[in-house]
Please model this.
Amino acid sequence: MERENARQTALQQLLIKIASTYINIDLDKVDSAIDESLKEMAEFVGADRAYIFDYNIESDQSTNTYEWCAPGVSSEKDNLQNIPIDRIRVLARKHAQGHPFYLNNVDSLVKPEEKELKNILTNQGVQSMITVPMINEDQLIGFVGFESVNQKKTYTESELAILTIFANMLVNVKKRIQKESKLHSLLQISGDQNDRLKNFAHILSYNVRSHASNISMILDLIYNEYPELAELELIELLSNSADNLSGTIGQLNEVVQINTSAKGRLEVLNLNEIIERAIDNISPAASKKQVRIINMIMDRFEVYGISSYLENIFNSILLNAIKYSSEERDSFVKLYCLVQGKYVVLCFEDNGIGIDLDKQEFDIFGISTSFKENNGKGNTDLFITKNQVEAIGGRIEVESTIDKGSTFKIFLRYEEN
Model:
């Protein structure tokens, strides 16, 4: 009785060890852990071999991937590579049904369909065996098992419990390997695409900027040789187009750099400090246009971001509000924060000329946006701003009424603690 109790205790400890070993195992340690587990399990139950086989249903083959053998027992792993499943169909059929396969005596395999399996086992010197299938989401992917070579053995529920726990752990490990492999492939693809995008942007920037520069140089020559042509509207339009083309290419190149360089650079930042720096940066422009900056953010907020990006974002929104302030009233820009779920929402509310969102809602952040520009040119700053916000995991929204003002809302990932 004491002996049986001691064995049950040892069995429970072994099952716990197996389960705990593979729960969060580093994938680079899986092979050595499996070898050690096969040894421990086989020695506990008194088996002469312990092994793992993979099923490849597409090729209709099975392969011995791991094996432990007791001293004096021959290794058969090299002989059991790419075995046609037809040769072990009796075994595979049981596994496909989700059942273990017990064999207390190889000589009991007497049916014609059992002949191939019996020949394989006899050549290995196997007298008894037990195997348990590995099933991943209803798909048969392999099996684990024990074999007895030196003598016949009747395998019991204890051996079944050990192999079942082990099989389940291996299935979970294989899932992790597949997911990490898929993730690695996706990251590799993403990295390759980013590299190609950056290269494309550099090539585009260089080639097109060269043509734009050539046009500008030709125009300069024309101005020097024929100054009277500078007054022609067509020449002026051509000059403006060359300048705008250079600016657009530069903006596109900057956006590519923003979206490909932000990965992995996010850090926790003090939002209040960056807002104060931005207000200091734009104070000369605010004073010149007599726009009052009202900072109502009293609490300390910490957000995820890139310091230089946030400062550029805030500068851009503040300067935009100053630029479109109304001359018909005392102008202000009011800053305040809200917390919505996982975001801090930084609001820039002004009483400027406003935006006609019915016409501009989908174009306001576009690269060619021009909503009532005094000089007729597009406002590409908001295009860059939107891309910087999105690159750090946030988003930007705007509410506006003509001749009443606008509120830009910057959603930033919130670090509460």
Residues 369-380 have pLDDT under 50 and may be disordered. DSSP finds ten helices and 13 strands in the chain. The first strand starts at residue 49 and ends at 56. The CA atoms of residues 209 and 246 lie 6 Å apart.
